[in-house]
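Notes on consecutive records. When two proteins share a document, each keeps its own sequence and its own token line. Never mix them. Below: protein one.
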Amino acid sequence: MAKPLSGPVTWQTIQAEALRRIRDREWKPGAQIPHEAQLAAEFGCARATVNRALRELAELGLLERRRKAGTRVPLNPVRRATFQIPIIRQDIEGRGLSYSYQRLSQAVEPISQPVQALLDLPPERELLHVTALHQADGAPFCHEDRWINLAVPGLENADFSKMSPNEWLVQNASFSGGGIEFFATEADGGMSDLFDCPQGAALFVMDRTTWAGPLAITAVRLTYAPGHRLTTAI
């Protein structure tokens, strides 16, 4: 039996739960998922709320929706990432909320093994590792955990105590491609404290890598507070 969602039921929390079910193979590749009316009854919300959550997942290539044939998990998902790169600050302000930013840590560190594999860099390479918190109306909105290649031009002059790496890279780094992955996870003790949410609450997570030709620019993990998400970010 499905576990009830933590906190208010919004299209974002339904989307995060759908992503978790896809990731954990509760909804298997090729299988039809429950109808919108069934999901609305399960989550205790309007059918339109479920529709929006599933529609956005379909636009990302993570679900296939066909009229009169229902909605299925594709056998070979195609993640449709666009390169119209938004800035988190602008996303927050576009919602009519006040934006604030806090750098949590910054250091040049040996590359971690997962990031080394993502960026295809030598294991001995050092990168700039920055963590930061984006806030909306004083409340946590998004945690940014980013590794930046020290070869990125102009990086030595960047001041991430005042401007987020997300915004600085959008303004200063040319890019030609990258990769993106969306999934849902449950808040552990650290994220629960950071976002002031219950442990186990559904969080929307995005991992992204960005390149300029053969030059790896950055790898970032963006973790959103319950009820928030952003489609893509450099």
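Protein two starts on the next line and is unrelated to protein one.
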Amino acid sequence: MLIAGFPAGAWGTNCYLVAPAAGEECVIIDPGHQAAEGVVEAVAKHRLKPVAVILTHGHIDHVASVVPVCGAHDVPAWIHPSDRYMMSDPEKALGRSIGMPLMGELTVGEPDDVRELTDGAKLRLAGLDFSVAHAPGHTKGSVTFGMPEAADVPSVFFSGDLLFAGSIGRTDLPGGDMDEMLASLARVCLPLDDSTVVLSGHGPQTTIGRERATNPYLREVADGLGSQAAPRRGM
């Protein structure tokens, strides 16, 4: 499997291109602020054919390049319905203090083909399987994408802004809620196997095992659940 990732824009948001191998179809995850050029470079470098964009949530640092990327490749964008409005109204989603400095340089709106993600959905895209988990807390419509273990490749978990290396996403923006965030960590993250690779919306790669041992938020949730927080195999 090929996963090409790069940080983009003012917030250094990670954008990922996922394909079975170089020269094949791919899925683009979170093409955010100033990510379009990086997508072009990654597509050319690995000879990829995008077939879909999937979004972990609707904040502008994760969706700002959706319209040009989808338009360039004539592909749909998938997002949870609770966050769909953010593509056309990012200021409402971020608040004026964060959104306004960049609004003058952004062209907001929806791509021509928008499809809805739902909790528990199974997506088969570019020959790859993605499991969708609704994980509110950072936003009302935040989701994660899981990919099962295959051959010598461990399970992969695209956590968006739910879980970072050593931290979690902020909850002080419109739609954020710490209780929902902790519940999502317990329901979505803790059941994963320790070897699951975590590719988050910001920062470096980590694993569920590393976060279970060192992330104070995940440890707090695990301590509260006791034996119920034991890991399982697979996604």
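For the record: The radius of gyration is 17 Å.
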